[in-house]
Write a structure and sequence with these properties.
The protein has five helices and no strands. The protein is an all-alpha fold. Helix 2 packs antiparallel against helix 5.
Length: 85
């Protein structure tokens, strides 16, 4: 199912960027507190596709475990924030 570009814009932040996995993990300011708790600043301080790929391809258990925790808690926050919409 194709979704129009204007319908894919992140509705939680003011960056007016497409809400894709890169935006969700590396850029969306709504998740910055969770991101700083679970993801090394190396991966999001100056976000790029290259560092994002490095994060996803990591073989370090702690890095991947924390990425999973980030996704879990960020999804929970996003769900909570959009519940009223």
């Amino acid at each position: 199912n194709e979704v129009n570009r204007e319908q894919r814009i992140c509705t939680l932040c003011v960056l007016r960027e497409i809400e894709d996995d890169f935006h969700f993990v590396n850029k969306c300011p709504v998740y910055s507190a969770i991101r700083s708790k679970y993801i090394s600043h190396y991966f999001y301080r100056r976000p790029s596709v290259l560092t994002y790929v490095y994060l996803l391809q990591s073989s370090h258990f702690g890095t991947l475990n924390n990425l999973g925790k980030y996704i879990y808690f960020a999804f929970a926050l996003g769900k909570q924030l959009t519940k009223g919409n």
